[in-house]
Sequence to fold (164 residues):
Amino acid sequence: MARELISSRLSYQLLKFGMPASFLGLGVLVIAAVLAKAFGAPVIIEGDSPGIRILLVVIAPLAAVALAAWAWDLKYVELDGNKLLVSGVRRRIVVPLTDVAVIKQNVLEPGRPIYVGMKTPGVFGETFSFVPSPTYAWESPSLVERLRALAGIHDEASSDGAAA
Fold:
């Protein structure tokens, strides 16, 4: 059986690298503008409301950190028969589907990530997640159901919804 890409390449790259870098860049620009204003240089931020400047200085970097923390756990995943080929930033591992305990999808999060829980902690910890490829958006049975069937997981407690 040929390898099949089941994670979204574009979503993985955008969420993992693009969005955190964008938010971080925005945060740096806001902080630079506020510091320049504090030292009397002419800047884009108008008005004398320190509340807005403080809000921007605090919210932009916190948003960047929160998004980066969430996106850091995303993996690039391929299906090769009864194995998952899982790649992080620096590591690539093979996960036999027999080592998988739970497969869930959170439809409320952006990208509808799929969470894979392991029977025993591995290189990526107890769980890892990935954003499924858009080609599986309208597939029946769903990718989650297909992976559960390959892993031999028939527990209804693993139904779609909130993630582990």
Observations:
- Residues 76-158 form a domain with the PH-domain like fold (CATH 2.30.29).
- The chain has three helices and seven strands.
